[in-house]
From TrEMBL:
Localization per Swiss-Prot or TrEMBL: Nucleus
PANTHER family: MORTALITY FACTOR 4 LIKE 2, MORTALITY FACTOR 4-LIKE PROTEIN
Principal location class: nucleus
Biased composition (Low complexity): 119-129
GO cellular component, one term: nucleus
Cross-referenced Pfam families: MRG (PF05712), MSL3_chromo-like (PF22732)
Domain Chromo, chain residue ranges per copy: 6-75
Species annotation: Parnassius apollo (Apollo butterfly)
Name of the protein this chain belongs to: Mortality factor 4-like protein 1
Length: 334
């Protein structure tokens, strides 16, 4: 006898992702061979490429009690301090408690040296907070497949349950900038000067132009590179507001959205926020439906992009790109 479905197709629901709860819509339902119910979930305000199959245990009825539960979980998670390890100039580690932004437990980016460099706390997948830089919902059930592109497509429950950790190795030369960035923002309480002198979009386009100038470049490689670089921009625009900012930066982000309502954030923010994205992208990629070969292909390109950033770090990173926050701004943060 088939199990009874608790939720109907088209029903507005709430859905867990990590420790947080998000507004969503049930698109489809099915029963696995071992009689487990699963639902195809679309998160409100997000592109269909973020849709995923989830077990029934993650879905909640949309009612007043559960909406209140959602708010309480969000508040509790936001108030939870995270101890982070900061590497000093002499290689010693000191622990500092910092407040986190609403998100999931992956608060640090693993590095090949076994050290942890903290980046803004974020979920493995983008927090489903609707904002002006969120990708528009195309309204279709099935996502369009793209060649090795950094898009998310629908995954099966078997894929969901068999997730493996995906790591992106941040080069040592760039990890020091993540540490300095953490210190400048959270301890010195400065802000990146925006719009950036060299924006994410310009950096990505410059990388593409650099690869095109290579003697080994051909039309087949160009097609893949365009997909990869456009995917990086899309990821950045979709995740900046919910995953890549420290608490101290959030009022600035709100001001930017008001001042540039129709401008993609990749045309406003710069290199350090792009580097934060790469430090977070491993867990994000774990939630794509790419097969192992395609995933390794994407990772190879990302590592090559990081190598490009290492080569050009003198141009990309400068402590002069930060400025002091005004007293009025400090009052907004409190």
């Amino acid at each position: 006898m088939a199990p009874k479905m608790k939720f109907s197709e088209g029903e507005k629901v709430l859905c867990f992702h990590g420790p947080l709860i998000y507004e969503a819509k049930c698109l489809k339902s099915s029963v696995t061979k071992d009689k487990h119910v699963r639902y195809l979930i679309h998160y409100a305000g997000w592109n269909k490429n973020w849709d995923e199959w989830v077990p029934e245990s993650r879905v909640l009825k949309y009612n007043e009690a559960n909406v209140q539960r959602q708010k309480e979980v969000q508040r509790a998670h936001s108030a939870q301090p995270v101890k982070t390890k900061k590497t000093t100039a002499k290689g010693r580690k000191s622990e500092t408690a910092t407040g986190t932004t609403p998100a999931r437990e992956e608060s640090r980016a693993s590095t090949p040296a076994g050290k942890d460099v903290e980046t803004p706390t974020a979920p493995a997948k983008a927090t489903k907070t609707q904002s002006k830089d969120t990708p528009a919902d195309s309204g279709s059930d099935q996502p369009k497949k793209k060649r090795g592109r950094l898009d998310l497509s629908i995954e099966s429950e078997e894929q969901y349950l068999a997730k493996v950790e995906v790591k992106i190795k941040i080069p040592e030369e760039l990890k020091v900038w993540l540490v300095d960035d953490w210190d400048v923002i959270t301890r010195q309480q400065k802000l990146a000067i925006l719009p950036a002198k060299l924006t994410v979009e310009q950096i990505v386009d410059n990388y593409l132009a650099f690869k095109k100038s290579s003697k080994s470049h051909n039309s087949a490689k160009e097609s893949v590179l365009v997909d990869i670089t456009e995917g990086i921009k899309e990821y950045f625009n979709a995740t900046l507001g919910s995953q890549l900012l420290y608490k101290f930066e959030r009022p600035q982000y709100s001001e930017i959205l008001q001042e540039y309502p129709d401008t993609p954030m990749a045309q406003i923010y710069g290199s350090i926020h792009l580097l934060r994205l790469f430090a977070k992208m491993g867990p994000m990629l774990a939630y794509t439906a790419l097969d192992e070969k395609s995933l390794q292909h994407v990772l190879t390109h990302i590592q090559d992009f990081l190598k490009y950033m290492v080569t050009n770090r003198a141009t990309l990173f400068n402590l002069q790109d930060y400025g002091n926050a005004t007293p009025e701004y400090h009052r907004k943060v409190q």
